[in-house]
């Protein structure tokens, strides 16, 4: 059954004027003119076919139907105001829901979260890892960290950085490698979400096709990294995701050749969350961390 509702602006004007017994005071509360309130009330009276006020030179007075109508609609408007206030408090709460690709979350984001907590202890992060691009319209996620070509219509998009790709392995295994052609006798490790990385690098250096090499695909980049650290094979590394392993010497670069990744890392969010300070704080922090990552790579 279709609800038969009067114009809501007219309803608001009537409720304010009836509660305050004054068109002028209602106008001040609503931020409009007294003439506008009078016109809205007249519109409502025409829609209802009922006289709601008696108008006098110095003011107005509710009619009997007007008093009855006020008694019925006031609780409904109070309920709407209460629901709106409650929803607004939730939307402005210090909770930020973030979605990220598993490898990026594990290797780049999570190791840095302690710094975010020190800066914003009042903000609660809820982090989920998704291999597929999340539709913000059908989930409650606020911010996405994605490795894509950056084409996300309807979202605010900011590039974080673009990885450079190069092989890495255990130091002992590196001693056995004599140029890219020697990869033919090794096991190539990679994250299945970035299944083209090895092919991209091999084509860049002009060496054997990926299909001619032994390989193992992992569902998590951290698993591929740990396997390389333990000497299982040679990993195609993303520089921003293996910086700790390179710094510690757990992994080394057997060859100097590298190539930019086809996709870059982005932070994205829908415009409707921009009014929430907690979301903007997280986005600003991520962008600052990304600038630091870029500077480290450039240095």
Q: What is this entry, summarized?
A:
The chain folds into 3 domains: 8-91, Winged helix-like DNA-binding domain superfamily/Winged helix DNA-binding domain (Arc Repressor Mutant, subunit A); 95-162 and 263-298, D-Maltodextrin-Binding Protein, domain 2, CATH 3.40.190.10; 164-260, 3-Layer(aba) Sandwich (D-Maltodextrin-Binding Protein, domain 2). It is built from 11 helices and 12 strands.
Outline the structure in words.
The chain is of the alpha/beta class and 299 residues long. It folds into three domains: 84 residues, Arc Repressor Mutant, subunit A, CATH 1.10.10.10; 104 residues, Periplasmic binding protein-like II (D-Maltodextrin-Binding Protein, domain 2, 3-Layer(aba) Sandwich); 97 residues, Periplasmic binding protein-like II (D-Maltodextrin-Binding Protein, domain 2). It is built from eleven helices and twelve strands. A five-stranded mixed β-sheet has the order 4-3-5-12-6. Strands 9-8-10-7-11 form a five-stranded mixed β-sheet, sandwiched between helices. α1 packs across α4. The radius of gyration is 31 Å and the shape is rod-shaped. The model has no long low-confidence stretch (mean pLDDT 89). Keywords: DNA-binding, Transcription, Transcription regulation. Belongs to the LysR transcriptional regulatory family. It comes from Fodinicurvata halophila. Pfam families: HTH_1, LysR_substrate. This is Transcriptional regulator GcvA.
């Amino acid at each position: 059954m279709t609800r038969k509702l009067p114009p809501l602006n007219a309803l608001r004007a009537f409720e304010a004027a009836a509660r305050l017994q004054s068109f002028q005071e209602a106008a001040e509360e609503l931020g409009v003119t007294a003439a506008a309130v009078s016109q809205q009330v007249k519109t409502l009276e025409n829609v209802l076919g009922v006289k709601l006020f008696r108008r006098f030179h110095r003011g107005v007075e509710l009619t009997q139907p007007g008093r009855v109508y006020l008694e019925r609609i006031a609780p409904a408007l109070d309920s709407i105001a209460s629901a709106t206030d409650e929803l607004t408090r939730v939307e402005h709460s210090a909770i930020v829901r973030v979605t990220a690709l598993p490898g990026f979350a594990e290797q780049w984001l999570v190791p840095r979260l302690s710094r975010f907590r020190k800066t914003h202890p009042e903000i609660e992060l809820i982090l989920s890892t998704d291999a597929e691009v999340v539709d913000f319209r059908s989930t409650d996620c606020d911010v996405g960290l994605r490795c894509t070509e950056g084409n996300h219509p309807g979202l605010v998009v900011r590039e974080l950085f673009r990885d450079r790709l190069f092989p890495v392995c255990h130091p002992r295994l590196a001693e056995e490698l004599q140029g890219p052609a020697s990869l033919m006798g090794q096991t190539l490790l990679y994250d299945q979400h970035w299944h083209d990385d090895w092919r991209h690098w091999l084509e860049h250096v002009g060496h054997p096709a990926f299909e001619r090499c032994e390989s193992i695909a992992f569902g998590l980049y951290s698993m591929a990294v740990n396997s390389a650290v333990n000497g299982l094979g040679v990993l195609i590394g993303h520089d921003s995701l293996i910086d700790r392993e390179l710094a510690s010497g757990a992994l080394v670069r057997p060859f100097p050749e590298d190539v930019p990744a086809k996709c870059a890392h982005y932070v994205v969010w829908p415009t409707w969350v921009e009014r929430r300070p907690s979301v903007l704080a997280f986005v600003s922090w991520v962008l600052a961390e990304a600038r630091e990552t870029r500077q480290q790579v450039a240095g």
